[in-house]
Amino acid sequence: MNLRDGPSADPSVGAAQPSPSRPADRLTDPGRADTGGSAHGGEVAPGGTDDGSGPALPSDHTQAILETTKEVGAVLKASGRPFALVGSVAAYAHGIPVRLQHDTDFAVRQEDADVVTGALRERGIRIMDPPEDWLVKAHAGGEQIDLIFSLAGRPVTSELLDRAQTLPVDSVHMPVLAPSDLMTARLLALSEHHCDFGTLLPMARGLRERVDWSRVRDETGGAPMAMAFLYLLELLDVLPHGDAPHA
């Protein structure tokens, strides 16, 4: 996700249902290998292929990603360091119907990275050091985990994590990024190379009464993709006309 959450983009909308062909694996399982699936570890879409010669989409990993999220969340809570669930799984926790297909993302402070990764290693989770300096990647149960230190170029701070809301994630309670912060991060992650309004519209509609849109406008001011999206929300009557500034 680039919040990469985007962002780790999910081509979502529709009710989140576990894939019958993809049972949830426990986090402590050694890796999981799929047979006959796509490079993303999922099923090949009708008309698609697994060799790169045609379009292929990953299957819905919702339940598998939720299982991974719950167990990673439990490890992070036990570490005693602040964190918050972000990205598409955070939207899911806030009640937005999304299909989870890519990874699960957690915001942590840079200064807590060693403690957090150490706690995950003790649970047998494989930690990877990507070339980017704003996150750490991990793998468990066949799913990818991103530990993010910077959301859309802004460092994860104690203040940001203090605003997180404790919500149940498939029965396990954990801190989840607050709606206004979640929307701000997703909007700031938009660019000329990644500008999928389709995945943001269900989130904006579902969270609109819980978002401080004035703060979102202030924090995304000057970002052209964010301004365009806020204007689109006006045209769709998600926001009152004139509530979002535009040129």
From TrEMBL:
<dbReference type="InterPro" id="IPR039498">
    <property type="entry name" value="NTP_transf_5"/>
</dbReference>
<dbReference type="InterPro" id="IPR043519">
    <property type="entry name" value="NT_sf"/>
</dbReference>
<feature type="region of interest" description="Disordered">
    <location>
        <begin position="1"/>
        <end position="60"/>
    </location>
</feature>
<dbReference type="Pfam" id="PF14907">
    <property type="entry name" value="NTP_transf_5"/>
</dbReference>
<feature type="compositionally biased region" description="Basic and acidic residues">
    <location>
        <begin position="23"/>
        <end position="32"/>
    </location>
</feature>
<protein>
    <submittedName>
        <fullName>Nucleotidyltransferase</fullName>
    </submittedName>
</protein>
